[in-house]
């Protein structure tokens, strides 16, 4: 405790912050008054680690404070919480209770899609499509294509929960899920979507590796002797 107090005083921190490790975890953030001072103290702690003074950050409570501070000050986390609250508001009964829903699959990716009346917003796993798909124009176009083909870009909001596979497979799974949800919304949408091949499930997957081969078909180099 004395070593921690000496280290914090050397950095210009208050002794009360050094005694933070002795407080209850539920009270650790209450003693830190403002986000500005919180950020300064975390920067000081990081500087202390860089100088090799590990006595200050040895306490797991202090590490928890630093982690929660970084999360609280992150604008990305704030936006994600806002989107999560919006999704819960739109789907009070969850994905299973939604009426306009569809499931799409591609490789090992599975996407559960729900359409709600809106303005064209797309939320994937409580994140914006631009953020989740890393701004890739091809993947973003794939997600929006079923709506764009019918002229519904600004008629529905898309809420997606997807897991498995990579981003490319997930984008194609979402495309199929959106197309199937549009059929639930209006059965007349089946013919135009089917003509464009948007209702066909792409069954191609990675071929399994074979015994005695390097990969699915690649054989080891032949050696005569």
Automatic annotation (TrEMBL):
GO terms for biological process: translation. The keyword DNA-binding does not apply. InterPro entries: Ribosomal_Su5_D2-typ_SF, Ribosomal_uS9, Ribosomal_uS9_bac/plastid, Ribosomal_uS9_CS, Ribsml_uS5_D2-typ_fold_subgr. It comes from the Eukaryota. One of its GO terms (molecular function) is structural constituent of ribosome. Transmembrane segments: none annotated. SUPFAM superfamilies: Ribosomal protein S5 domain 2-like (SSF54211). GO terms for cellular component: plastid small ribosomal subunit. Keywords: Ribonucleoprotein, Ribosomal protein. Gene3D superfamilies: 3.30.230.10. Belongs to the universal ribosomal protein uS9 family. This is Small ribosomal subunit protein uS9c. The gene is LOC112289224.
């Amino acid at each position: 405790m004395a070593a921690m107090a000496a280290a914090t005083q050397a950095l210009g921190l208050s002794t009360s912050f050094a005694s933070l490790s002795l407080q209850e975890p539920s009270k650790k953030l209450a003693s830190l008054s403002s986000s500005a001072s919180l950020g300064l103290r975390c920067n000081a702690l990081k500087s202390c680690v860089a100088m090799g003074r590990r006595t200050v950050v040895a306490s797991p409570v202090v590490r928890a404070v630093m982690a929660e501070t970084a999360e609280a000050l992150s604008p990305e986390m704030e936006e994600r919480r806002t989107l999560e609250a919006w999704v819960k508001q739109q789907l009070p009964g969850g994905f299973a209770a939604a009426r306009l829903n569809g499931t799409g699959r591609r490789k090992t990716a599975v996407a559960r899609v729900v359409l709600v009346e809106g303005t064209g917003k797309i939320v994937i796993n409580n994140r914006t499509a631009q953020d989740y798909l890393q701004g890739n124009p091809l993947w973003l176009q794939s997600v929006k294509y079923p709506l764009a083909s019918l002229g519904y870009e600004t008629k529905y909001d898309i809420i997606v929960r997807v897991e498995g596979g990579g981003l490319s497979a997930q984008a194609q799974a979402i495309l199929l899920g959106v197309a199937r949800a549009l059929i639930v919304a209006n059965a007349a949408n089946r013919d135009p979507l089917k003509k464009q091949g948007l209702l066909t499930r792409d069954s191609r997957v990675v071929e399994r590796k074979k015994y005695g081969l390097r990969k699915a078909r690649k054989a080891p180099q032949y050696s005569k002797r």
